[in-house]
Amino acid sequence: MLSRNNLSVTEHDKEMLQIVHSVSIHLPMSPERKLLFRKETNNDETLSLLCKYYHEGWPEENKVPADCQPYYKLRNSIYFQSGFAFLEDKIIVPKNLRSDVVKLIHEGHIGIGKCLNRSRKLFYWPKMSQEIYQYVMQCHTCEKFRSRNCHEPLLPHKIPKLRFSKIGADILEFAKKPYLVVVDYFSHWLELIPLPDKSAKSVISGFIEIFSRFGFPVEIVSDNNPFNSKECLDYFKSKDICLTTSSPHYPRSNGMAEKAVDISKNILKKAAEDSVDYREYVMSYNNAPLAGMVVSPSQILNSRTMRTLVPITEKALEPVVIKNIHKLLILKQSINKSKFDRSVRKKEVKFNIGDEVVYRTGKDEYWKKGKIVKKCKEPRSYWVERDGSFPIRRTTNHLKKSFSNTKQFKTSYYNDDSRATEDNTTLNSDPMISSPARVSPPRDVVYDNNYCTRSGRVVKPPNRLDL
Ligand SMILES: [Zn+2]
Questions:
Q1: CA of 139 to the centre of ligand 1 (A)
Q2: How wide is the angle at C-alpha 17 spanned by C-alphas 15 and 18, nearest 5°?
Q3: Distance in Å, CA 136 to ligand 1 centroid
Q4: Where is 182: in which H helix or E strand?
Q5: How many Cα neighbours within 13 Å face the side chain of 281?
Q6: Which is deepest, 213, 298, 370, 414, by most CB within 10 Å?
Q7: Which residues line ion ligand 1, judged by CB < 5 Å?
Q8: What pTM does this model have?
Q9: Cα of 145 to ligand 1 centre, how many Å?
Q10: What phi, psi does 89 have (nearest 5°)?
């Protein structure tokens, strides 16, 4: 048996031990949760063996039990400190706590790409990515409010130079209550303010609440009503704000706010479905990295990460000004536009008899569960059997494969007759920043966005433990 103590301790090891030590000390977890992690790490058979190997040295590969095999190649990056197991600076989650951690990662129904992104920064266990992928794909709430099948090519907007200088605004109605939706064109920070009514006075009051937190913007992009009413215009003028209204012939010019409306509606629907205060899901949105990026609206706008229930280091909660973000946002926009436009021209989707699906029409406000029972003569058309009802015919445009194991979603108790949602698999997504293209099932990748040392070791700095 090779003893670790006999192996030379490299500079990298020393550095990692220091990092792991400080991570374990500064984990802003409640004492109860720390205790639970320690207890479960100690009770976990595989982790106990790893701990033994860590202190006494690893046996030959063929003598390593099956459960420990996935860790063999990573053995030089595994550390035990203060009762926690680490892979580099990521916590190795004991088996009994994995499902809880997956739930926390998906809190607020954050989209799959973002869930994978944030989990890979913080945690490790074999097949973690697959487990998270499966959990999110099987989430009833997410499936019910998944995106529609049709997408138009994107019209990218101009990204402003400063944070909260240009904002999009719109009003949405949910469960017969109006809300003011405001989104920052730079950081994508979302504000969702309930209004007593849709009058100019109430809208101005909503704006004042938001401006009290972020200051006056230079420009507001919105639809016409009630934003271009005399009362609103007078208010904007008095605060040196210019209003750009979208043309009726070119409604997509307010695409950013429209997208924010879709995201907000999904937040409201999912919060109602889960009986959660919607403001918690707004927080999750603002705190989750933008799709395809490592930074969240909160990090971009406020230079800090908000503390949530997901374990995070104290260091990651310290303020950091994200530099060069303007260039990054422009780059991301062009990449995502081409990705998105490619996905619009995607191939025809085919179904087999017996396939579990979800279906909807243009009028439906969410997806419903069904099963393919017959293929029609006509192209792209199928008969769908519904739970206890006569089969109905649907085209592939209104069909998607189903992954959740529920028989039927519960009927919504709210009455939402306004525009249907466009997106939900990527709750935090934006057409300009993220690609709504289907996410492929991931291979379990241990190292993402890391760098290699001259000796070839993969290193991840501790301040990447952000959420
Ligand atoms: Zn979900």
A1: 5
A2: 65
A3: 6
A4: strand 177-184
A5: 25
A6: 370
A7: 109, 139, 141-142
A8: 0.59
A9: 9
A10: -105, 15
